[in-house]
Amino acid sequence: xxxxxxxxxxxxxxxxxxxxxxxxxxxxxxxxxxxxxxxxxxxxxxxxxxxxxxxxxxxxxxxxxxxxxxxxxxxxxxxxxxxxxxxxxxxxxxxxxxxxxxxxxxxxxxxxxxxxxxxxxxxxxxxxxxxxxxxxxxxxxxxxxxxxxxxxxxxxxxxxxxxxxxxxxxxxxxxxxxxxxxxxxxxxxxxxxxxxxxxxxxxxxxxxxxxxxxxxxxxxxxxxxxxxxxxxxxxxxxxxxxxxxxxxxxxxxxxxxxxxxxxxxxxxxxxxxxxxxxxxxxxxxxxxxxxxxxxxxxxxxxxxxxxxxxxxxxxxxxxxxxxxxxxxxxxxxxxxxxxxxxxxxxxxxxxxxxxxxxxxxxxxxxxxxxxxxxxxxxxxxxxxxxxxxxxxxxxxxxxxxxxxxxxxxxxxxxxxxxxxxxxxxxxxxxxxxxxxxxxxxxxxxxxxxxxxxxxxxxxxxxxxxxxxxxxxxxxxxxxxxxxxxxxxxxxxxxxxxxxxxx
Length: 502
What we know:
This protein is 32% helix and 26% strand. The protein has helices at 2-16, 18-28, 61-76, 78-100, 116-138, 144-161, 318-328, 334-354, 357-360, 366-381, 496-499, and strands at residues 52-53, 189-203, 207-220, 223-236, 282-294, 297-298, 384-403, 407-424, 429-432, 437-448, 457-458, 465-466, 472-473, 480-481, 489-495.
């Protein structure tokens, strides 16, 4: 008995601290880098949106001591230990199941709606859709994909220039310097914007407000930081959204011309001097929801999947929206569109694996391409390559459809598998596993609703006129050129566990 009491005394400290750690171990080891990467997360990669931070991991030392003592108790005193261990195991299973429910709404799990958190998420999703429809009625030119590209461009530029002389580049799109207070220490480099999610839309008589959740990270010196933030954007009622090629330039809010200004701050071209929010969207507030110090951005980084077993989240209006889609895109065949999504998915994995920017360019929007180019160049500079092989698409499920003046956007959940390894230029494996890994992600594809202009496309590098619809590499100067009209291309990637909250 004294031996038993001694063992229980040794076990006692773990009963307060060790058991919660044991129950949390699945989450702690579930994903590398603390579970964060950009453009929504990880999978095969840091590539899906651009790389991982290597965050700290719980070492497991306390868990190891707890497990050893539990095993010792189990073998020496089974009558006492078996019921005790059973309680621990049941608690572990309950917590794991609760963790997999996620925060989102889903039409794939009817009983989930009976839970308060899921009901709140469902109502929040419906409220966002209602606000989006009201905004479109007030501003026929509003485009969700374009707006989110604008948010990404402004957040990246603001973080790069805050606290420097270049801060004037964004001041016309920010309501006062206090808005950027969370980043005011400045000096941020290698800014990467990840998941960008609409959270709420409020259309009022005098002003419209939109709240967007933005995940972004940056390096500074020998370290770095990751933020999850909520940006509130405001705009005067009656203002019309700018179109493709204008909204992300961050130039004159009034006319969309260059950023050059006169001495009094007015636009050199139109003479206007609008206050932030009068002629275009402007950031009114930035709230930090979560912040973590991180080591410098790391390349590679094999992480296990999270959320693949969650039910597919579908928009409450998905059926009606899919029925409307052929009306705006005559001749659209869903099976052909789904085949195109799978084709783009496979081609992008190959282009990423080959570090082939020219192959990437015609398959992604400008925002996605700029992020992927950054990471491909970083891999190349480090003498590394994220090699993806045996790419197989198992299933593609529809999730959401949106239409605006310029684009049709379709979000699908892609279930796939591949061998994911990081290799050096000599072909030596430095990270990853030899066997295929299964995963799922939400990919949003967009395509234009109008045909390309017959006069062709102008290369931004040399000014040459290219054939209408031509994308990829300019045959004259080698610049990578986009097209004003395109078939389905990648606009955004969200991870299962991130999309669950959308």
